[in-house]
Design brief:
about 280 residues, alpha+beta, Arc Repressor Mutant, subunit A, Beta-Lactamase, 6-stranded antiparallel beta sheet, two-stranded antiparallel sheet, 8 strands, globular
């Protein structure tokens, strides 16, 4: 029998994080795991590294790095080339990354739109999102042309030297844009890269006005990209869609024509997201 004086309490909901979840001080981090992730992330960005090179470039001892690598190897996250004596990212890393892509319907909904865009323009179609101040490419539909752009899922690119990156930056309000660019070095990858903050802001103003961004050989010489933002139900730019190809096929005279197709694809994808 339940006492009327002491009614049963509501069952406590399980929490996904502790009350002090925002506290990122040393007491709430696992140093050994942090060191392991540093090695793992470094190897993912610089494939094929020797043990001594990894140790030097991550500023850790060879013994520590070796234990990290062996542990990750046991999980399939890295693998060792015994012939070349080099460490590489393993297949399990791809499996885990693919699970991230399945977390959202964005990639799934974008595939038919990207395929139509590729068929319509004859150039590679790309989909990217902003992650950690960079563009993370999450999907690509390649053209069948021999010479083509290649940005496999998982590739990271600086925002200021990417068509998708500039399309997303252009949709940020002043406060968010300032945060996104704070402390960033506008690296010159080619003579066409934008390395001046005022020049970048001027370029972003043009992007907003015309509705699409152009990477005019700013990341790679001989490659041009046209991109447009994709909006969700809240009218927030959550991704960018683009076509990219060699300047021999994507000339200055082709930008206007391709931009129409890219903007239409962005509008179609936005519509599927409620934008």
């Amino acid at each position: 029998m339940v006492s009327q004086d002491n009614p049963p309490s509501e069952p406590r909901r399980a929490r996904g994080r502790p009350r002090d979840w925002s506290d990122k001080t040393a007491q709430n981090t696992i140093k050994s795991l942090d060191r392991a992730m540093e090695v793992f992330e470094f190897l993912s960005e610089h494939q094929g590294k020797a043990l001594t090179t990894l140790a030097t470039e991550t500023d850790q001892s060879p013994a520590t790095v070796y234990r990290i690598l062996v542990t990750l190897e046991g999980r399939g996250l890295v693998e060792f080339d015994a012939v070349e004596q080099l460490w590489h990212i393993g297949p399990r890393a791809f499996v885990i990354g693919a699970r991230f892509l399945r977390r959202t319907s964005l990639v799934e909904r974008a595939r038919p739109v990207m395929r139509r865009l590729m068929e319509q323009t004859g150039e590679t179609a790309n989909l990217g999102i902003e992650r950690g101040g960079q563009v993370l490419f999450v999907s690509q539909v390649e053209t069948e042309a021999t010479i083509r752009a290649f940005f496999p899922p998982g590739t990271l690119s600086p925002m200021h030297a990417s068509g998708i990156g500039k399309a997303l930056l252009a949709e940020m309000d002043d406060a968010r844009l300032q945060r996104a660019l704070a402390g960033k070095t506008l690296t010159a990858f080619t003579p066409h890269s934008i390395t001046d903050l005022n020049a970048l802001r001027a370029d972003l103003a043009q992007v907003r006005a015309r509705g699409y961004a152009v990477d005019a050989e700013e990341r790679n010489i001989g490659m041009r990209c046209i991109a447009a933002p994709v909006f969700d139900i809240h009218q927030e730019a959550v991704a960018g869609i683009s076509v990219s190809g060699p300047t021999s096929r994507v000339g200055l005279e082709d930008i206007e024509r391709l931009s129409v197709a890219v903007r239409a694809a962005a509008a179609d994808l936005s519509a599927t997201l409620g934008g």
